[in-house]
Amino acid sequence: MQSAILADDLGALAGLPVPDSYRGMVVRADEQEMFAGLETRDKDPRKSLHLQEVATPELGPGEAIVAVMASAINYNTVWTSIFEPVSTFSFLRRYGRSSELAGKHDQPFHVVGSDLAGVVLRTGPGVTRWKAGDEVVAHCLSVELEDPQGHDDSMMDPQQRIWGFETNYGGLAELALVKSNQLMPKAAHLTWEEAAAPGLVNSTAYRQLVSHHGANMKQGDTVLIWGASGGLGGYATQYALNGGAIPVCVVSSPEKAEICRAMGAELVIDRSAEGYEFWKDGEQQPSEWKRFGSKIRELTGGDDIDIVFEHPGRETFGASVYVTRRGGVITTCASTSGYMHEYDNRYLWMTLKRIIGSHFANYRESWEANRLIAKGAVHPTLSKVYPLAETGQAALDVHKNLHQGKVGVLCLAPEEGLGVRDHDLRAQHLEGINRFRDR
Question: pTM of the predicted model, to two decimals?
Fold first, then answer.
């Protein structure tokens, strides 16, 4: 299988047997309490993530098995690895009880990972769009679409789940099990590891900022982007620039500020240099919100923020609500610094601001986000790549915020740089593709 892919003999895959087992990065149900009593910051993904042999799951209707060439780390892998805010085995048990087909997901192990780039090995009954040998990426929306609530927007389906987080057999492995409607074409000008990096965060940023389900950003909007050089914010910055908006990029170091400017952003706030302290002794500091707002107006020539791209959560949410203009929008996801948000509601209700919750993306939004990657209009934010066996270290980098952009993981790909089909398009965009590398 691996040899056929590397030899570019993709037509042979349909005739090759699917392996009975494969290596996957897992957390184990019997270790769910291993970090009991530790502070979040002291929990180490290297201790909980294990590379082990996993039996290949049975392929069901509407499903596909993909040979994973590369994957990437998202914050949900960090949450899974430290068993916060809850153990993901509760998700797997609940999913396993939902149907006979889903029962295979309830296992004493959880193969993690919500990104992949690879090659289709097999498709189940009823799959007509994809076949063995197709080069693909996968978005992470797993949805049953048997409830009417999901047919206007599949994110509203009560059976909506995030693959590799709320389902088993994720992408940090040599094989992965997906629903066939998760699959999208791999960008021909990208390597396997580059193509695997956008997935979850690119689609999330598209819905949160661009889609009518999110902020519905328009030309001229002033957009405050927290963590603007990060895995999520790096895509938000590109969408703001591409869409004619004016990004105000918030970062935490001069190096990250440099990345934002390299993407084309002109208005950048280095939090570390400005010394903002939104919390002190367990209390929010409204004077710091005001100082932050003054800095924004200084940069924008007096304009307030139309849209806040919020994902840090507790640490920044009070400031986000304060600096948004009258009638503006705070669109929020993730809450990586804490879920219990606090803000002064006077600055919301009296000036008619709105808070919009945004969670991943539906199939159409994911497809559109991937189409922009394939056209070279949006570039991966890949900075560093680890082998599959070192996924724990990759997750630790993200947990400790030691990374820029996205951290990739090689699965079946033996080295970086493989998988490029369109070398001419790649040459046109090489600077953008490599903007985050080795930072």
Answer: 0.95
